[in-house]
Specification:
Elements: E1 2-11, E2 18-28, E3 33-38, H1 44-51, E4 59-64, E5 68-72, H2 84-94, H3 99-110, H4 125-139, E6 143-147, H5 155-167, E7 173-177, H6 181-187, E8 190-195, E9 198-202, H7 205-235
Parallel strand pairs: 3-7, 3-8, 5-6, 6-7
Antiparallel strand pairs: 1-2, 1-4, 8-9
Helix pairs in contact: 2-3, 3-4
């Protein structure tokens, strides 16, 4: 189980502290599937990084009683100067997994071929996603943190990832940050919506999507109004 209590994140900026979110509390059990919705810059990736131990919270508690993946889609999980193969060996040692078997599983899934012998800093975002996915599936976790990773790679690879995660590992938990609402509908049954530092939890996924769409539409109207004002000011 995952227990999150009174979580908050604040970043210092040159104009003062910026609140990303605060007072966030929720629980996630085995087989639960939670979506994280929010416009760009609202804190979806930050939340997943905190849950994955990549970034520290400003305050609050995150308590895991099941194993969790790193945020899939986060490029910082790899050492850029090391080859793909060396990264696989290094992470296999950290998680105490058999190196040869882990390497074989990643090679079969990622289909990177000779590119695995190249330094990761030369990888495209799609190649990094393949490597990250292959590793996460080879190591196996109780809960997967997924950050827009289905936005990269070709259609066949995305289908392969979805099948491996949501069909072959249907008993696992997932926390998914995504703008793809069809994907969210298909794979999630609950949602958090983040907007301007506030987080609202929804047990009804359709209601969460409706609220998110309303927020996005309001944002588009505000942006259009601001652009109109700028044009008028230029004419004057």
């Amino acid at each position: 189980m995952l227990e999150v209590r009174e979580l908050a994140k604040v970043y210092p900026t040159t104009v003062g502290p910026r609140l990303i979110f605060s007072d966030l509390s929720f629980e996630l059990g085995r087989s639960d599937r939670l979506a994280v919705l929010g416009r760009n810059g609202q804190g979806k990736s930050t939340l997943l990084k905190i849950l994955g131990g990549v970034t520290a919270a400003t305050r609050g508690d995150v308590r895991w009683s099941m194993t969790n993946s790193w945020p899939l889609g986060f490029g910082g999980a790899f050492q850029g100067g090391m080859t793909g193969l060396d990264n696989i060996r290094f992470i296999a040692r950290i998680y105490d997994r058999p190196i040869e078997r882990t390497t074989a599983l990643v090679e079969a899934f990622a289909e990177l071929g000779d590119q695995l012998a190249e330094p990761v800093r030369f990888y495209s975002s799609g190649m990094r996603a393949r490597l990250a996915f292959g590793l996460s599936l080879a190591i196996e976790f109780d809960c997967y943190l997924i950050d827009e990773v289905f936005a990269v790679g070709d259609a066949l690879f995305r289908e392969k990832c979805e099948r491996e995660l949501f069909n072959h590992r249907a008993d696992r938990s997932f926390i998914v940050a995504s703008h793809d609402l069809n994907f969210v509908r298909a794979h999630c049954d609950r949602a958090l919506v983040i907007e301007r530092g506030r987080v609202k939890s929804f047990d009804d996924i359709e209601l969460a999507i409706d609220i998110y769409n309303s927020i996005c539409e309001e944002g588009r109207l505000v942006a259009a109004g601001a652009a109109q004002q700028t044009r008028l000011a230029g004419v004057q």
